[in-house]
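Q: Convert this sequence to structure tokens.
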Amino acid sequence: MSSLTHGQKISVEAHINELRQRLLWCVLALMIGAGIGYKYNQEIIQFLVRPLGQQLFYTSPTGGFDFLIKICVFFGFLLAIPVVIYNILRFIEPSVPARVPFKVYRLVVVSILLALAGASFAYFVSLPAALYFLDNFNNEQISSLISAQEYFNFVLLYIGGFAVLFQMPLVFLFINKVTPLKPLSLFKKQRIVILGSFIIAAILTPTPDPINQTIMAVPIIGLYQASVVVVWRDGRKGHRPKPKISSNSRATKE
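A:
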């Protein structure tokens, strides 16, 4: 695979060739991951259905096959995330100004850790709370018959949404490296962030209860606070004064 250096100017043709090669690597990683997902599809399905605690159904002759394909592709995408992130960073690396520190491997590791933290929070905290709320509507006259397709879309929304949301500190840090941000200005936008967090939570959560919306909104607010702290610490690090060398120590070295 060709690799373009940081801040290097390239032609349009080279840019297209680079994009094609990196897309091929991402597709290859997805196919390999999907193959692994097919081998362990029973374990993956058990893991996804565990928070629900009941059997799933499909309502068409091809429903079971479609669900299996989705599970394999979803698992393949999860395993391919490091490869995708790495190739995205490598692709945009030449357009990043040379003055901006751009350590690809460190960014990949941090991004993966944040995605795992978001997915874990969704699976162990937010998803069970949402399922518990929805289960309260069952009674003697009404019982749930959840299809595999609907449940998969439901789980994918939660896990994928939180994995993306938890990238917020990394995004703010990257923006601050390119265009320095003012932590005080970011901190003054707390009301807008809180309001926007609950609006996003109301859109993403399929349950109308305020408890589940709060469970999703609080991490967004917390991530914004963490992003402000990251920007503040990065600003202090950039403006840290360099140690002065006294004339005596200079004479000693000479």
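Confidence is low (pLDDT under 50) at residues 249-254.
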